[in-house]
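re: ur question from the group chat, yeah i did fold both. here u go
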Amino acid sequence: MNQFKKYFTLSYDDGLEQDKQTIALMKKYGIKGTFNLNSAMFGEKSNIKYFGTMGFENVDPSVVKRGLIKTGPANRIPADEIRQVYEGFELATHTAHHANMKKLSKEETEAELLRDREALSHYTDLPVVGHAFPYGSKSPSQIEVMRENGFLYGRGVRNAKGKGEDRFAFPENPLDFAPTCWHIDKNIKELFQEFLSITPTKGDMMFYMWGHGYEFDFDAMKKREILKTLEWMFDQVANNDSIIPCTNAEAFLDHAAAKR
């Protein structure tokens, strides 16, 4: 009898005001997920320059770009709202200052990670055990710091490779793994349909999608009706007993427990 599992989990970065609409939709369908926050930046207000579906630079809210380069809101949720907004969802580190870890020493890396974890622990009753690499940047020393300090997993930004079942294979290296997709990708609905259609025969599978809340406000994402796509996906998960909706940590813990 096939005992392999299929996990569905989400990961959103930066602690943005747009997370509130995402969370409302997740709660409607019983979807779980993880939010990766920068604790030294709570409440900061900015806009982000974007082209198409890609955001690339934070600017003062007063800056408004026209033409091909536009700006959208990228305001962070203030500290006094964090616990209420994210109640029941997992919080994970994203460094205190959204730091590019490749540019930091091991000591600076440790300070950014552990300061963030300590701060976030005051806003949640769940253990803070995960990390999302800002900019996808990482270094061997950062992985070492995470391992030494009991982190359970670390997520990059480049999509997982492979075809068919292999595309959704559960990560072999939890401290440095690739997500299934970024929610700005054009093919997420087709990719999810493929995930739905596959019965795992080689091992556990995971559909892991990540993004930033500000991307929901980009013109191209609105045109694609990304929120309608997410709602369709959530409805499919909610009505499919073969898929486990979970936080990032729950997926890794459950997978590890089953292997023992």
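okk and heres the other one u asked abt
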Amino acid sequence: MGIENRVALVTGSASGMGKQTALRMAENGAKIVINDVVPERVEKTVAEFKEAGFEVIGEVADVSNKEAVEKMVKSAVDAFGGIDILVNNAGLEKAGILRKLSEEDWDITINVNLKGAFLCSQAVHHYMVEKNHGRIINIASRAWLGGVGQAPYSSAKAGMVGLTRTLGLELGRKGVTVNCIAPGLIHTPLWDKAPEKLKKRLLSKQPTGKLGEVDDIANAVMFFSDDDTEFVTGQVLYVCGGRSLFAG
């Protein structure tokens, strides 16, 4: 059945994995809500989607702010009549070994990645339950298994896995599935800016010996979003080229 005419809110979707995911969903007939904290990026992405003939609106909102999230969801419902698919993609990472991390590093990483997913899921809950249909897809990371220098990030992403499993239990009888995608090394602009020494070290630990592409994540989101995947919930899908086979 696909996702044609479904309304999809993808957080952090003005660039990178989120943008490609939103694009793939639009190409398959969904109505899209683009979100980012940078107004210029939202405006540019919405213009691109409209030029391509897609139904789209843009919402500038900090997903760690409850009031901003509720306003964003209401605007989406006012524009399109509901929310069918939520992709909790917005995130950031403050890296560093334990003794060098600040309290602020911890707070912002947990707030954007984990609290943001909680607030957005909470905000769309009513609209999905009311229709007895919904798809929530959380973008976690292979790093939830642990990674040197990733204490805040790994903790936040582990929390997203726990949130996924809990909401899968809570919402299963209400027609709402909740699943999680755990990406590994993905070719994004952030990767391009990384030091060559770091790239070499990370790729040396990659079973496939290569990066994933943003399309790999979009493909996984499409699977979980489909109307026909109603019997799949509470799951973690690793899209990491085998990197989840060991931690560190």
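fwiw on the second one: The chain has a mean pLDDT of 94. The first strand starts at residue 7 and ends at 10. idk if thats what u expected
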